[in-house]
Amino acid sequence: MRDSDSLKNWLGEFLPGELPASGLQLIAVTGDAGFRAYFRTNTQPSFIAALAPPEHEDNQAFVNIAIAMASGGVHVPKIFAVDYAHGFLLQEDLGDTLYLDVLNSATQSQLYDQAEATLLQIQKLPADSGLFPTYDAALLRRELELFPEWFVGGLLGVELDTQARCLLDELFAVLQNSAAEQPQVAVHRDYHSRNLLELDDGGVGVIDFQDAVYGPLAYDLVSLLRDCYIRWPQTVVEQRVEGFRRKLLAQVEAGEQAVAVPDSETFLRWFDLMGLQRHLKVLGIFARLSLRDGKAGYLNDLPLVMRYVLEVAQKYPETEDFYRWFMDQLEPQIVEQSWYQSWQSAGEQG
Q1: Computed over its alpha carbons, how large is the radius of gyration of the chain?
Q2: Exposed site from 21, 29, 33, 102, fewest CB < 10 Å?
Q3: Burial zone of 44 (CB within 10 Å; 0-12 exposed, 13-18 middle, 19+ buried)
Q4: How far apart are CA 26 and CA 40, in angstroms?
Q5: What is the pLDDT of residues 7-50, one digit of tens each?
């Protein structure tokens, strides 16, 4: 019996009320980049059923983090039933109005205000090493190594010589040190327009949080504002970064948060370098999704991610050597790729 059939049989035991006269049906919903498959039930109200293979997904962590986030005032899907052995979950249906589908120049201010308010709630969750693993230097480094392994070597076929390897090591140390300077808070780790939903009541629904960690303050903010799937003008981004910093300060002054908030220049530098770490990682992940998992559609998102990487790399003296190396050694290979478009204009709307 296929897993989806087993899931349907299991759901029949837990769904409240009467099943539709036509029988229970599961309608596939676009999932995330992991191994989970999601289905919407044809019931009233509808529910989301998840098939999350336990050999690939930590369902216990997902449930525990969902409970913690809900207790902190974050609207995550309620979980009604779980079968850990088979990786079956029955969850609340938050709808399908993804931020990505409704974000535009007219809506972005209100939607990001809501998303930042929710992010502030996430960041106030208490540290719990059993719930949120530490986003330490070792984990940051493992993520950064996805860039040379999957993007540089795997996708572009470029071999690193000793000089290039040293250059990357120096860059990675800069990014690790910047992350370590920051106050540590609960981090969703993938807080962007495909994991946020606009709810009917105007609130924000948060999904795909199972990889949450305790780590750098700026991580989720840069995931949100330098989103790999939609780009905003630099002036808009920097205004929102400063606005968020002021919101943090207000929370500290009100005794609602206990983090050390730096000056504007330091906070923006944290934001920029945290984004550089994240976007180098994403270049590796998107390449891996294509090469290993057959999800070639992610290659079309590479030019925007490269734009984020290269705009920041040009900005700081300690990252300029990386920028020059990228342009000299990688761009000649990149322009030959089928997915190539000019990174200087990637993500431009209209």
Answers
A1: 21
A2: 21
A3: exposed
A4: 6
A5: 988 998 888 767 777 888 999 987 655 688 899 999 988 999 99
If you count DSSP H runs as helices and E runs as strands, how many of each does the chain have, helices first? Answer: 13, 9
d(CA 186, CA 75): 16
Alpha helices in 46-98 (DSSP H): 59-71
Provide CATH 3.90.1200.10 ranges for the chain: 99-345
The DSSP bridge partners found for residue 51 are 37, 88
Q: Look at residue 22 in the predicted model and tell me its pLDDT.
A: 81
- Indicate where the chain has its CATH 3.30.200.20 domain(s): 3-92
Fold of 3-92: Phosphorylase Kinase; domain 1 (3.30.200)
User: In the numeric block, which tokens belong to residue 186?
Assistant: 């609960």
Tell me if the domain spanning 99-345 has CATH number 3.90.1200.10. Answer: yes
226-250 pLDDT tens trace: 999 999 999 999 999 999 999 999 9
* Coil, strand or helix at 223: helix
* CA distances for 76 relative to 48, 65, 68, 95, 137, angstroms: 12, 10, 10, 12, 29
DSSP 98: B
Condensed to tens digits (0 to 9), the pLDDT of residues 59-108 reads 999 999 999 999 999 999 999 999 999 999 999 999 999 999 999 999 99
pLDDT in tens, 113-156: 999 999 999 999 998 888 999 999 999 999 999 999 999 999 99
Read off the pTM. 0.94
Residue with tokens 């090493």: 129
